[in-house]
Hints:
The chain is α+β, with helices and mostly antiparallel strands.
Amino acid sequence: xxxxxxxxxxxxxxxxxxxxxxxxxxxxxxxxxxxxxxxxxxxxxxxxxxxxxxxxxxxxxxxxxxxxxxxxxxxxxxxxxxxxxxxxxxxxxxxxxxxxxxxxxxxxxxxxxxxxxxxxxxxxxxxxxxxxxxxxxxxxxxxxxxxxxxxxxxxxxxxxxxxxxxxxxxxxxxxxxxxxxxxxxxxxxxxxxxxxxxxxxxxxxxxxxxxxxxxxxxxxxxxxxxxxxxxxxxxxxxxxxxxxxxxxxxxxxxxxxxxxxxxxxxxxxxxxxxxxxxxxxxxxxxxxxxxxxxxxxxxxxxxxxxxxxxxxxxxxxxxxxxxxxxxxxxxxxxxxxxxxxxxxxxxxxxxxxxxxxxxxxxxxxxxxxxxxxxxxxxxxxxxxxxxxxxxxxxxxxxxxxxxxxxxxxxxxxxxxxxxxxxxxxxxxxxxxxxxxxxxxxxxxxxxxxxxxxxxxxxxxxxxxxxxxxxxxxxxxxxxxxxxxxxxxxxxxxxxxxxxxxxxxxxxxxxxxxxxxxxxxxxxxxxxxxxxxxxxxxxxxxxxxxxxxxxxxxxxxxxxxxxxxxxxxxxxxxxxxxxxxxxxxxxx
Length: 587
């Protein structure tokens, strides 16, 4: 979603110290040097690069291979020493460990902005520009193929500590080691028990069929009943209501303790254009050009330009058919422009829908006086769905809860495919389907009348360079190798990463889709990388603005101890805007 990567244009250069680009040999270290074509100039010295990263036994094996291949390629010129680290305490001690520590290291995307803010990361923007240029100009295609990269790969490691934005023009402090998109895993055993036939047919093929058979159309739904039989189409995203209906059937007739589990609200908000904070430009002298507004309970409906409709221009932006009008612009829509759009639920409605998942059907989640609030019953009352375990009831982590057969459907990342392949035995077999999309159907289920957009989050780990490295050129070459097509393909072979090049992720005979650990429908993960963006932990330099309200949400609200109205009235919730203001306040 655009707003998580775009905000106010950078108005000031970062004041952080940046090591010199393309440092020549002898300037503080034994760094390599390049000729005018970007090729390494031979030297009688071997440049040593120290590399740290946390790893389990699988990832350690993959990175041992990456390091070995790189060292062989640059034998006698560069040697990378790889030191696997425990993930325990890694992020907390990162800044201290970078003092006199490694040249290259993993950086959790949740904290990299804080590291940049503290001046321990090297701005690799110019290296990246040269690498992209070299890919198209060098005969051997050396460098990074930016044109083939999936969206939301590079920009998630851009950050301006002054403006707090992540624009395409902001400094680049790392490269993505990998991408971990989310999808819905499902246990096929429960579908078989419930008598649900799993099929796979795309929306495009169904639309083509319906156009050719106007009197005998197929349903375009993901879960439906027809002539007494039930079907689940794993190639089509479920609507909110379909997820609830399917989950209940999997519980009542499939034998699952619970039908569905997601620990993240992002998918519900993103599909209707909502979010928990939004960047608002301002001329207020108290801020550096803008501030972040807490919008988790934004009550204003969202608007999407109707399919087949004409573009609309508002707030200096133009929105085409199928695009949701952004937060700041929707306030400027005229009545005529709203008529050109379909109305989508508000962020508050989406967030409420998420919270209802873990509440019992007799549990009052909230009472609203808002007109046409999604799912509200008589008197504006909203009760739980009873399809998801609440956080207190889960004795295991979410992935173990699924692999042990306690929940039929689970939202998790592509990185656990290998774990499920090895842990799920006998009748317990898994596959994956797309994340939910807000939809309203025609009465016969053959048309989608109103829809949101594909929207969810993906995870990532960054590869970053120490700001104090004496060998930035050699260090960059190793970073570039990890991010190259060869490096991405080797990681994908380990069964825990999705390569972030379209030519690799979508290749039917490629290492990702053909992996022994990949789900049958793993193409869902590849497609998800095209639209999934980071979660809220990535938005700002730390999570102080999240911690208090999230604690109340997960300990009290999702466990049924507090209603959403009580949550919105809590001190923790109300204090969040004050915390957000501090991030862009002028010092």
